[in-house]
Design brief:
Layout lengths: L5 E6 L2 E2 L4 E8 L5 E3 L1 E19 L4 E20 L2 E3 L5 E8 L8 E2 L3 E12 L7 E8 L3 H5 L13 E3 L7 E6 L3 E2 L4 E7 L5 E3 L1 E12 L6 E12 L3 E3 L4 E7 L9 E3 L2 E12 L6 E7 L1 E2 L5
Parallel strand pairs: 2-11, 14-24
Antiparallel strand pairs: 1-3, 3-8, 4-7, 5-6, 5-10, 9-10, 10-11, 12-13, 13-15, 15-20, 16-19, 17-18, 17-22, 21-22, 22-23
């Protein structure tokens, strides 16, 4: 828990890989005390879930575990040993350089990547006055375009073929990578031969998170949902392009590689059928959380 005697300001509020972040810290002690030093930390932790089979000799069961691993840690000593006087303000400024490859913040259930800025006064034989603030590290479009992460065969292409048979079908997304903090648009172009009876034609941007250790959990998250055809009727027939637009989502669910997991994005066009299996046209797509870079 953060101590109320601290205040913290972080600039910029959303961090970018390879860019500096300025942290201003202020501490006003509630009592006189000695400190052995003051330290600040920029820290990244990965959290992931996995199953293990456990036995007590009589019964066997599957138990879900949650592991937390420190992925990155940047430390800075702000002050040495000194006497802190009740009610007096002590302030420090520090600049951290965010690692060039992040990793970016990812807020899933099976898999997470969280960043924090922390500071504390080291008190001998006592509770350290401390502060902790959660911060976001964005996944830039430029980092994904650079090919640092394998985003799939067509993850970085605006146009991608999605035909399910000999008839043409493709999904266009623009811009690519898609940023969850910016609007994007596209079109679904398809020929079905005869028109198809549908309950609706649904659009979904999905993120799959896979924990890559033995027994690791798998999670599919629908990040955005829209409608191409909102009601029952006939869809398809001759080759036709159907445009669409998606508004800002604002989620922290980008394409990212972590030491014990990875996430990937796919865009689905779903022909929802009554009394029949839904038809899915889908493609890979790289997902960012900022278009600033």
């Amino acid at each position: 828990m953060s101590d109320e005697s601290w205040t913290i300001e972080i600039d910029p509020p959303v961090l970018l890989p390879g860019r500096p972040v300025s942290v201003s810290l202020a501490y006003t002690p509630e009592r006189d005390h000695d400190g052995r030093g003051v330290r600040a930390v920029l820290r990244c932790r990965e959290r992931y879930r996995y199953d293990r089979t456990e036995s007590d000799g009589k019964t066997t069961r599957t138990v879900t575990h949650t592991a937390v691993v420190e992925v990155a840690r940047l430390e800075a000593d702000l002050a040495g040993p000194q006497r802190f006087v009740r009610g007096q303000l002590y302030a420090w400024d520090i600049v951290f350089e965010v690692p060039g490859l992040g990793p970016a913040t990812f807020e899933g259930e099976a898999l997470r990547c969280d960043w924090t800025v922390e500071a504390n006064v080291d008190v001998a034989m006592g509770r350290d006055p401390r502060v902790e603030r959660s911060v976001k590290v964005a996944q830039p479009t430029a980092l994904l375009r650079a090919g640092v992460i394998d985003t799939g065969q067509y993850g970085l292409f605006e146009e991608a073929p999605v035909n399910l048979d000999a008839r043409p079908a493709q999904i266009r997304l623009e811009p690519v990578p898609v940023s969850l903090h910016s609007s994007f648009e596209g079109a679904f172009t398809v020929e079905t031969g005869d028109p198809v009876s549908v309950e609706e034609v649904r659009l979904e941007l999905r993120v799959t998170a896979q924990v890559t250790v033995s027994g690791g959990h798998h999670e599919e998250i629908v990040v955005w949902r829209g409608m191409l055809e909102p009601g029952a009727g006939q869809f398809g027939g001759a080759l036709t392009s159907h445009p669409f637009r998606a508004e800002v989502v604002g989620a922290w669910l980008p394409t990212v590689d972590l030491p014990h997991g990875r996430t990937r994005g796919r865009f689905h066009v779903i022909l929802a059928r009554d009394w029949a299996r839904d038809t899915h046209y889908e493609r890979d797509v790289a997902i960012a959380t900022t278009a600033e870079l």
